[in-house]
């Protein structure tokens, strides 16, 4: 009986460990031919070496370069491609990827891996106590390995101040493209998401707090990569207006009572 009990306990622990290392990785991609290949090599190498049970969901936002060709030539049965018929935006692509994820945890990461995939280790440890863990470049303990140009750095510091003034008085960095969720939590949140563009990060964090989910902001190593898709004037102004739209959406009940 003791032997049977020990075997059952071992099987149960193995199953729990497997579930704890089962993750979907969502990568929104638009014209990423210069970066997506290396990022996939780094992700699959890390996940395989650390014995994760995983899938990589790449949501191609109607790229006009060789992004899709590079992904399709990458030999891995872990990669799933979803293609948007028209260009919809980063927020739409992340939402679509999350809704198609199958594992207990879901990470969305920018295609350039500005936050290295190795940061996942501590995020997976933290997610046991939280519903969401988000990367931050502005917290004490973060390490900016390659810095942004001064004008992007200025915007990177200014936008969080506006977020705190208008919408969320809680986070130092809402825009870092590396966020880990319990998948059931993520699906509840994005089902209420209305933004397709770059300000979706603020909206989903607002929704998460409104629904009572626990969020941990964690400092990370971050490496600036060339090729940002954010248009400094047009996108920045729209993101500013979207902060007020979140307040309005909340007022009219779009995010629930």
Can you describe what's shown?
The chain is of the alpha/beta class. The chain has a single domain (2-251), classed as Spore Coat Polysaccharide Biosynthesis Protein SpsA, Chain A (Alpha-Beta Complex), CATH 3.90.550.10. It contains 9 helices and 9 strands. It has helices spanning 2-20, 36-49, 67-72, 90-99, 120-126, 150-166, 183-190, 200-210, 234-251, and strands spanning 22-29, 53-60, 79-83, 105-109, 132-136, 143-146, 178-182, 215-219, 221-223. The strands form 2 sheets. A 7-stranded mixed sheet has the order 3-2-1-4-7-5-8, with helices on both faces. Strands 6-9 form a two-stranded parallel ribbon. Helix 6 runs parallel beside helix 9 (234-251). The termini are far apart. The model is unreliable at 8-14 (pLDDT under 50).
Give a nutshell description of this structure:
43% of the residues lie in helices and 19% in strands. It contains 9 helices and 9 strands.
**Oligomer class:** single chain
> What is the name of the CATH class?
Alpha Beta
Shape estimate: globular
**How many angstroms separate the termini?**
53 Å
Tally of distinct domains: 1
């Amino acid at each position: 009986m003791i032997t049977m009990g020990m075997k059952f306990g071992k099987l149960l622990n193995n199953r729990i460990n497997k579930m704890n290392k089962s993750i979907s990785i969502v990568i929104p991609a638009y014209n990423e031919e210069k970066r997506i290949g290396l990022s996939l090599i780094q992700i699959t190498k890390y996940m395989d070496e650390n014995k994760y049970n995983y899938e990589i969901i790449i949501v191609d936002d109607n790229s006009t370069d060789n992004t899709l060709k590079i992904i399709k030539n990458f030999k891995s049965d872990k990669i799933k491609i979803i293609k948007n018929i028209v260009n919809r935006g980063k927020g739409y692509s992340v939402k679509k990827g999350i809704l198609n994820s199958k594992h207990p945890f879901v990470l969305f990461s920018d295609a350039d891996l500005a936050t290295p995939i190795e940061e996942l280790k501590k995020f997976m440890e933290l997610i046991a106590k939280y519903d969401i863990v988000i990367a931050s470049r502005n917290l004490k303990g973060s390490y900016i390995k390659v810095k942004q140009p001064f004008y992007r750095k200025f915007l990177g510091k200014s936008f969080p101040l506006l977020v705190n003034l208008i919408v969320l008085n809680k986070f130092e960095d809402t825009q870092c493209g590396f966020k880990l969720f319990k998948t059931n939590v993520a699906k509840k949140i994005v089902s209420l998401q209305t933004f397709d563009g770059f300000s979706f990060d603020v909206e989903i964090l607002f929704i998460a707090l409104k629904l009572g989910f626990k969020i941990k902001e964690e400092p990370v190593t971050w490496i600036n990569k060339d090729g940002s898709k954010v248009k400094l004037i047009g996108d920045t102004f729209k993101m500013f207006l979207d902060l007020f739209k979140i307040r309005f959406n909340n007022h009219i009940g779009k995010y629930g009572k």
